[in-house]
Amino acid sequence: MSYTINGKSFDAEPRPGQCLRTFARDLGWFGVKKGCDAGDCGACTVWLDGKPVHSCLVPAFRAEGREVTTIEGLACDGCLHPMQQSFLDAQAFQCGFCAAGMIMTSASLSDEQKKDLPFHLKGNLCRCTGYHAIEDALNGVASVEEDRPGHACGSSLQNPVAHDIVVGTARYTADVKMEGMLHLKVLRSPHAHANILAIRTEKARALPGVHAVFTHEDVPERPYTSALHDDYRVDPDDTFVLDDVVRHVGQRVAAVVADSEGIAEEACRFIEVDYEILPAVFDPEKAMLPGAPILHNKEFTSRIQHGNRNIFLKIDSEYGNVEAGFAEADVIVEGTYESNKVSHAHLETHVAVASLSDDGRLHVRSSSQAPFQAKSKLSYLFGIPLEHVHVYTERVGGGFGGKQEMLCEELCVLGTLKTGRPVKWEFTREEEFIAGVSRHPMTTQIKVGAKNDGTLTAIQLRVVSNTGAYGNHGGETLAASLSQSLQIYRCDNMQGTGYAVYTNIPPSGAFRGYGSSQTVFAVESAMGDLARKLGMNLMELQRKNVVVPGDAVHSIWEGPSDAEMGSYGLDQCMDFVEEALVSGRGETKPEGDEWLEGKGHAVHMHDCIPPTEQRSEAHINLREDGTYYLTNGFAEMGNGTITSMRQVAASVLNTTASRIELVNADTDKTPYDSGTFSSVGTSVSCKSVSMAAEILKENILRLASGLTGAPPDQCKLVDDSVVCGSRTVPLTELFASVSDARHKLHVMRKAYGSPRTTCFNVHGFRIAVNKITGEICILQSVHAADAGTILNPMQCRGQVEGAVAQGIGSSLFERMVFDANGKMVNPAFRNYRISAFADIPRTEIFFADTYDAYGPLGAKSAGETPIIPVAPALSNALEDATGLRFDSLPFSADRIFAKLATLS
Amino acid sequence: MDLNTITEIQRPSRVEDVKDWHAGCAYLAGGTWLFSELQVNTHTLIDLETLKWPSLTATAAGLEIAATCRVIELEKFAAPAAWIAAPLLSECCHSFLASFKIWNEATVGGNIIMSLPAGPMTSLTTALEGEITLWPRSGDPRTMPVVEFVTGNNKNVLKPGELVRSIFLPGHALKKKHAFRRFTLTHLGRSETLIIGTRCPEHGEFILTITASTLRPMQFHFEGVPTAAEVRAAIDGIPLDQYLADTHGSPEHRQHLTYHFSEQIRQELSA
Prior knowledge:
- The complex is a heterodimer.
- Chain A is an alpha+beta fold.
- Helix content of chain A is 27%, strand content 22%.
- A 7-stranded mixed β-sheet of chain A has the order 8-10-6-17-14-15-16. In chain A, strands 2-1-5-3-4 form a 5-stranded mixed β-sheet, with helices on one face. Chain A has a 5-stranded mixed β-sheet with strand order 12-20-19-18-13, sandwiched between helices.
- The relative contact order of chain A is 0.12.
- Chain B has helices at 71-76, 87-93, 100-103, 108-114, 120-127, 146-149, 171-174, 228-236, 251-270, and strands at 8-10, 25-28, 44-47, 56-59, 62-66, 131-135, 142-145, 150-152, 155-156, 163-170, 177-184, 191-199, 206-211, 218-222.
- The termini of chain B are far apart.
């Protein structure tokens, strides 16, 4: 059969059921991505005879004799297609995984079609950007600024991989071919809770092309946690690579390594399992009751606190005396708030490829947010010396916390150790839903007391967090939920009780907002209620009670804290949002009496660094050619640290970012970094770089001074030279002249995550709600962030826009739903909707003008936290519009209409 | 996605060439559903594309739509001016959750055969009194109203191996006034309810077709424009368990919207 892809014709014979997506990828066109493999996300969009199609749905044989164009074929004679150029100029991507499909769709649109972007882009999902930059690209708006010496910090510099992203040559984790590579697939449990009595694998093993089959009998007898933290002891050792007990529908039971995915899938169907079905429990309150089915009755060494009551961790802490505080109160409000189970939905699913080199070392290509943690975990699990394990990422397609977890690397390693060959495993989108991790659903009971003048006297929280079948991140998210949600308020009496509870649903994990999103929803909604009850404006109530510079950062814990406000922009943020909401900007309310209008906002203060151990090391050296080589172990998954880190170094060294070569996230090539999560990209990883660059600068100036005789204070780094009084020494010359002092041109510094500065976010909405249908229309959305120095305005805006979009989705419609047997009913993007272009309004974004005392060049965290105030801001706007308090997320029309009906 | 269980593709040029149909065979039209999920019990795909059925045939009697007609072709169809209901063709095409890119492959017949409550081709052909023609493996073709073809959520009367050949929209239906309401939980999402009313300019007959809300299309005929109470009474006859429960809407909300929009349609067509 004859095929033509990107102008190249060839004969090939696709497999009968093969789709065009994998056919193109097998031929090396890796620009064709897999986001869902079901036609919902558009990441695999190609042109067939010039028409855009989702290549995952097109039978490969139907492309015979037709012209296939992938992203790699869009540029002509080395010239970018205008749409590629527009995406480059607007930096209309973050992780870049959706960009190929987004560009292929956008480039196919006529001018007429471009007039309706919500409609024409609804088949292309982006989880990172919030679509604003994509709209900019389609409208020809350019945001990228020039890279000028000394101006790197504060400029909207483009991502160093941007060109590769728009032409489709950026390599993501799965975009690799290795000689002799095998494929792994797993058999998953149909039961929510069962003992495995027997597994018969003979038929599977007998299938031609099968190289290995693994069950719980073949895995290391070492319990571990899939969560990735610098200090693994904060999470419980409750997991085995394969277990003889299944605790949720979708838990893996057996793994097959075979020549192809198809053979591995078939072999999985040949495995017979005898289960002893056990009673299951899905409600965490019921799971804590006597007589409930027990998920993990393990020894204390597992660090599970009350396994016999399904409680991984109970926290109970009080600052001051809440009983006295409530006694003092004139007004008390109470409420119970429920948050939903939300999927990260990073477009690149979890992927890993393990292989062995001739020297016997193990190499793991991974989509991890924390390669160094994955490395030590693999070393521990398989008893391999640390120095024999190499974990690295190339480009990672989104994370949001979902990849702060080791979910596939270990089985690939098992396969490689057994077969000696490279083994690859790519999660399907369904697996991402049923066996990946998600946001912890939490039920928050809150009680707040205040004096008539608004002074807070006591706040009390009781949080029940559903950690699902495993405890990964259950403890740390619980601690965050009880503390980060309260610390913005000055209140002498705060108390929190929390439970991280095991149930038979798929495990929860780290998710942008990490516990705070769930409880800030409760706290800020309660503050809205309190303001109403006191007859005060919420802003007024907050201004009376929020922390101010000089205050200690505290919540429910006794004793001192290393969290400190290294800068303070909350006042500016509140002013920005207040002014925007009274400005009258935004859309007008739809006509008709059934539409009610309301405004609301919420505030948040967040620690820029986790309370657990966090450190990062940077190495930087001047090279012979006068440029710099920088290494740091942080992971890049669209967070933009790869861009801002070079800006930090360039800024300190008074040069352009283009003169800084950066290598990251490779345990062989870069020094240690705890991992990229918990808002640390800027506050810790970039901090190590600014520290190292400062030392390098000093050394360079000192050496230049020695060379020229000019006093050090008259030497200045200017781009590629040192100006020493009247003489200019090019860095190449300096390098050549100091052969006896080269060690001074190669420096390293470590940054530690202490003290932990804080950032602030305020979000405001004006909405209309249809009291008959329950539809919510966002008329105006405004966000103000205090992220200290803004290292890259375009990128910081993008992070805010993306976080707000994720917040709008999880507040308005996203919801993982499970049936009575614990099986997820909507494990596909068509049934678990994430925000599409049409769902996201433009958000007005403001940044406070602050300079942080602890962060690099005055910068602090920007990307994680804007999601947090979104849900309560919507809740407060809804309350303002209707007089009703909605306390269960998401606020989809079908979940709020019944309560709205009480209005008429 | 790759359908790794498929071992054979048949590409017949005539239906008579399809021999030996048995369990494990599946007809491939656009493939946009088939290739969106694993099909572990299927080993043979029989491609209907090579039959080259003419997609759209407009005559004075009405519009014949081949089962293999791509959605894009229906969306772009230029109807005679007298067919004042023709805007519904485009409106229903725009009621897919799926992208316009999927229209390039997906077929009208495929959507009706999926028989999902939110299938907009079912909504369209039901509301316009479509007749569907089925070709059994043996024996004579059979024809029935689309409203009877779909019997439940993902259920219809199709027998194993039976083909849907075409859907015929009668000219008299295409000449009716119409009103259209649709609601989705997310913008441009999957229909939670899709309700169409038609009214015959000559005889005044009013037909209310409720889809997406309910497990199968529900159709109510009135001789003239009904009263609000009559419409309510008709909807009252649909038990709550006949409303769909899924992540695109709750049964209660679908029922609520069905009452609300049906009344709006009644009023719109009263004018």
